[in-house]
Amino acid sequence: MITKTNHPHIVIDTTLSEPEPVIACTKTRVRAIVEKWRLGSHPEELTMQFPHLNLAQIFDALSYYMENQNEIHEFVRKNRVPDELIHPSLRNLK
In the list 23, 45, 50, 87, which could disulfide-bond 41, CB 3.0-4.6 Å? Predict the structure, then answer.
């Protein structure tokens, strides 16, 4: 089931194991956009990293994040790969 939000491009996908905000008509989670943005990617660059999304969808995901930071930070925390599972050669790239 999909639940609408007050953001035109963001819905809550309740079919996921834990309901989470995604870009409508995709399975792209808002947290995925936010994590790339927080690492320094500009919104225009995100459309290259997520070629199935347009700039309006990216900005709406960031707008949703700005209004729901604690919620998105919790999704990021719950889905973070533990350091011990990251190959040693990649640990310094974080």
Answer: 45
Domains and CATH numbers, the chain: 2-79 (1.10.10.10)
What whole-number distance in Å separates Cα of residue 73 and Cα of residue 92?
A: 22
C-beta of residue 66 within 8 angstroms of C-beta of residue 33 = no
| pLDDT exceeds cutoff 90 at 93 | no
Specify whether the CB–CB gap between 11 and 2 falls below 8 A.
yes
The backbone torsions φ and ψ at residue 11, rounded to the nearest 5 degrees and listed phi first, read: -130, 165
Contacts of 3 (CB under 8 A, 6+ apart): 11, 12, 14, 19
Helix (H) or strand (E) holding 70: helix 69-79
pLDDT tens profile 44-64: 999 999 999 999 999 999 999
Question: Which stretch of DSSP H or E encloses residue 61?
Answer: helix 55-67
